[in-house]
Design goal:
This is D-inositol 3-phosphate glycosyltransferase. It comes from Rudaeicoccus suwonensis. One of its GO terms (molecular function) is glycosyltransferase activity. With 371 residues, the chain is α/β, with parallel strands linked by helices. The chain folds into two domains: 187 residues, 3-Layer(aba) Sandwich (Rossmann fold); 174 residues, Rossmann fold (3-Layer(aba) Sandwich), CATH 3.40.50.2000. It is 39% helix and 17% strand. The protein has a seven-stranded parallel sheet with strand order 3-2-1-4-5-6-7, sandwiched between helices. A six-stranded parallel sheet has the order 10-9-8-11-12-13, with helices on both faces. Helix 8 crosses helix 12.
Length: 371
């Protein structure tokens, strides 16, 4: 197939959607398809992909995506295209513009939404309807999780059936090769959190949760929380850790490469997924693949691959998160049972699942939009 991906975010930007579009495009090349990416990100990076980038002044592309009409037309008119795969977040100007341009040309469009639309439905309706016109967008919709698919259905009530297309994560690469063991002198409990240090990851709320957990744990319990990632809130988060007296429990490690993160996970007792707006949870699935139980929230995308009390625990709210974590840190036997059941159970979302769902979405676009 000739496939065109349209994404407002892409490498060298760092984040979940950027990683996913890159991984998907690279895998499709391996599968023998002709793949092109169109993005609003003007900065170059070294990737073995055919990438067409928007204006160097990025805000111009965001505010006026049609300024890229010549570049978009060159890609869409170059040869016959089987499908355009548009990747949406909350507001996605270039992806929406390319969806309109493809619709005008009669090219099937499959949309995947990568963000939770909770409490932002108005912004999404404005970006897709008022500014760009619903009649100019003909597409099949999908979300990266059942939670996101539900948000799409509620926000855009006339789009019909919404598919679920999970993110592409090589869970086999993360798998442990030997039993997890604690060495003498190491902390009693090792927790890991991986994510950008940005507000939407709710890491500051998790630090507050740890401050409430600590008085519930016997004095002398040694707890290590390794937070992997960097971002604009690092100084604020470090100040919060110091203010709450959690410096002996929580460490901001900064960025680590995939191999280093995998090593951390293979020695961890629990992975923390603190975001209440987690559309999917790529880092959580990587931890799940590494055999680490996950503690997160049940109203997020984690519900698609974390079975409660088997592969982790999904809390209902912050108070439940405090209570659950405190109980785990005084009951190592329960945590060991969770670790054992996580390692004994194969992840329910695999790369094969992700690719099969993606190609099924393309078939829907081709057969339902232009029968």
């Amino acid at each position: 197939m000739r496939i065109v991906h349209a994404a407002d975010s892409f490498a060298p930007d760092v984040g979940g959607i950027e990683r996913q579009v890159e991984a998907l495009a690279l895998q499709q090349q391996v599968d023998g398809h002709d793949v092109t990416v169109i993005t609003a990100v003007g900065d170059e990076c070294d990737l073995p992909l055919d990438v067409h980038r928007g204006l160097k002044i990025r805000w111009l592309t965001v505010a006026f995506p049609w300024l890229n009409h010549a570049m978009v037309a060159t890609v869409l008119d170059d040869r016959d295209i089987d499908v355009v795969h548009a990747h949406f977040t909350v507001i996605s100007p270039i992806a929406i513009y390319i969806t309109r341009a493809a619709t005008k040309r009669g090219i099937p469009v499959a949309i995947t939404v990568h963000s939770v639309w909770w409490k932002v439905g108005l912004a999404t309706r404005l970006s897709t309807k008022v500014f760009f016109g619903p009649s100019r967008m003909r597409a099949i919709y999908s979300g990266v999780s059942s939670v996101v698919a539900g948000h799409i259905s509620r926000t855009l009530s006339r789009v019909g059936r919404v598919s679920v297309v999970p993110n592409l994560v090589n869970v086999d690469w993360w798998a442990p090769t030997q039993p997890a063991t604690h060495r003498a002198g190491e902390p009693d409990f090792k927790l890991v959190l991986v994510g950008r240090l940005k507000p939407r990851k709710h890491i500051n709320e998790f630090i507050d949760i740890m401050a409430k957990v600590r008085p519930k744990v016997p004095a002398g319990t040694r707890v290590s929380v390794s937070i992997v990632g960097d971002g604009p809130r690092r100084e604020q988060l470090q100040a919060q850790i110091d203010r709450l007296g959690l410096g002996d429990w929580i460490t901001l490690l900064g960025n680590r490469n995939a191999e280093q993160i995998r090593d951390l996970l293979h020695e961890a007792d629990l992975f923390i997924a603190p975001s209440r707006k987690e559309a999917f949870g790529i880092a959580a699935l990587e931890a799940r693949g590494a055999g680490v139980p996950v503690l997160g929230y049940r109203f997020t995308g984690l519900v698609d691959f974390i079975e409660n009390d088997v592969e982790g625990i999904l809390a209902t709210d912050d108070e439940d998160m405090v209570d659950t974590l405190a109980k785990l840190l005084v009951d190592p036997a329960r945590l060991e049972r969770l670790k054992a059941s996580t390692r004994a159970t194969a992840p329910s979302v695999t790369p094969e699942d992700a690719m099969a769902a993606t190609y099924a979405l393309y078939r829907r676009a081709q057969t339902e939009l232009y029968p």
